[in-house]
Write a structure and sequence with these properties.
InterPro entries: Metallo-B-lactamas, NAPE-PLD, RibonucZ/Hydroxyglut_hydro
GO molecular function, one term: zinc ion binding
Helix content: 25-40%
Oligomer: single chain
Protein name: Metallo-beta-lactamase domain-containing protein
CATH class of the largest domain: Alpha Beta
Number of strands: 19
GO cellular component, one term: mitochondrial inner membrane
CATH topology of the largest domain: Metallo-beta-lactamase, Chain A
Strand order of the largest sheet: 10-9-8-7-6-5-18-19
Radius of gyration: 23 Å
Shape: globular
Strand content: 15-25%
Pfam family, one: Lactamase_B_2
Number of helices: 13
Structural class: alpha/beta
């Protein structure tokens, strides 16, 4: 009597599903490896033919689809199975419970500046909503009148000089950055408002379900609307993971803003009634100027570039990698002002390519947390040390280390990403340019002289 004949019907079904799934994973692995090898051969041919290095770079790191799913065309990446997916979700829940109940209230080994517990170093600051609103109002007035002379004016100069001792730069030379948590930030460039990877809620899955936020969000949707004078221009979504896209926020913002998303996310947002969407593939470039000033007159040209990242997508098992993941670059007149990485693992060659094509970057927002345990996280997230390597590749003038201290989702201690980055930058002498931001604190970048100022209100 054969082994199979001794099994029950349910056991046969289970075994069949297991064999089918395993066969699919093996197929995906080898098909992805074929994509990588084919591109390596094509890359070698183009190099020998002395083709433009820019053309070669783009061809090698195009997005790729296998069996209807997006894949990572990087040798450094390792796919996760459904079993690993489920195991890590359980680990994340346990990490969250431990982080909120115990680690958040741990005593610091060396208390300083009034900070005694871990929680004391995750304090919230009040964002500079008034300055952002004033800038937004001026830009909107210029767009409405078709006269952009006010862009060269200096709003609220006396207030800023009293606060910092410096003169406030002209509106056209201002970039304001406020970190909300995880990879969510409100960035304003010359009065143009960008929200990245929006998440404001206390929990990841629902209003009271899922991993809990370690501290309250320093901003709400209402605050964003106030700061932008009810004109949030763009929302950049790097991928659809719950800690990078909160669906309740998406519903609240709806079609009041323009969404910029990677391939596959347009249909997900459309199911929520959202249709003002720019959907992009890796290396796509979109001129944002007509979206900012539909009637023309804006003297500067703004572009968004969708660049590759090494990550994955999906909110559940069944929708894994059905949409693309990416990073975004905001450029003005050919100069990179903002590099929003979202989530990514480290690929030396990829970031060298991005740096050659779009460096230098004025401000890079790079994730520095969720890197433990390394057997699972390394292909998908970067460590503080790897973030500094990326700064070198993309030639970042300033870097803010984000994606830490918001949720406890991985094995490293809550404060470790911050501590490691500070140790590494102090050793390298770059601590004044590469550091972690404070929650809610608004940082002003003078795009003319390159100076950074933290604005305490």
């Amino acid at each position: 009597m054969s082994f199979l004949s001794q099994l029950s019907f349910k056991s046969k079904v289970g075994l069949g599903l297991l064999v089918s799934y395993t066969s699919f994973e093996v197929y995906m692995h080898f098909r992805t490896q074929m994509v990588i090898n084919d591109r390596k051969r094509e890359f070698s041919k183009l190099e020998r033919a002395e083709k433009s290095i820019e053309d070669v770079d783009v061809k090698k790191f195009k997005s790729a689809v296998v069996a209807g799913m997006f894949v990572n065309p990087f040798e450094e990446y390792r796919n996760q199975t459904a079993f690993e997916f489920m195991l890590v979700r359980v680990m994340e829940l346990l990490e969250s419970l431990y982080g909120n109940r115990f680690e958040l209230h741990k005593k610091l080994p060396h208390p300083h500046d009034g900070a005694v517990e871990v929680e004391d170093l995750l304090k919230l600051f009040k964002p500079d909503l008034e300055q952002m609103r004033a800038n937004s109002t001026i830009l909107q007035s210029c767009i409405a009148s078709g006269n952009f002379d006010k862009m060269s004016q200096v709003p609220n100069q006396s207030w800023f000089k009293k606060l910092t001792g410096d003169s406030l730069p002209q509106l056209n030379n201002q970039m304001l950055f406020t970190w909300v948590g995880q990879s969510c930030s409100l960035v304003q460039i010359a009065g143009i408002n960008f929200l990245t990877d929006p998440i404001f809620g206390d929990h990841l899955i629902g209003k009271s379900v899922g991993p809990k936020r370690l501290t309250k969000s320093p901003l709400s949707v209402e605050d964003v609307n106030y700061a932008s004078n009810n004109k949030l221009d763009f929302v950049l979504v790097s991928h659809d993971h719950p800690d990078h896209l909160e669906m309740d926020v998406a519903k609240q913002l709806g079609n009041s803003t323009t969404w910029i998303v990677p391939l596959g996310l347009k249909s997900r947002l459309a199911r929520k009634g959202i249709f003002k969407i720019i959907e992009m593939d890796w290396w796509d470039v979109v001129d944002l100027t007509p979206y900012i000033a539909p009637n023309g007159g804006l003297k500067d040209k703004y572009e968004v570039v969708c660049v590759p990242a090494m990550h994955w997508s999906g909110r559940y098992i069944f929708d894994s990698n059905m949409s693309l993941w990416c990073s975004f670059i905001i450029r003005r007149n050919g100069e990179t002002l903002l590099y929003h990485a979202g989530d990514t693992g480290y690929s030396k060659e990829l970031f060298e390519v991005i740096g050659r094509k779009y460096g230098p970057s004025h401000l890079a927002l790079l994730p520095i947390g969720q890197y433990c345990p390394s057997w699972h996280q390394k292909p998908r997230h970067i460590s503080p040390e790897e973030s500094l390597e990326i700064c070198r590749h993309v030639k970042a003038k300033y870097m803010k280390g984000v994606h830490w201290g918001t949720f406890k989702l991985s094995g490293e201690p809550i404060l470790e990403p911050k501590t490691l980055l500070e140790e590494l930058t102090e050793k390298a002498g770059t601590q004044s340019h590469y550091r972690v931001p404070d929650f809610g604190l608004t940082y002003l970048y003078n795009l003319k002289n390159g100076k950074e100022t933290a604005v305490h209100v």
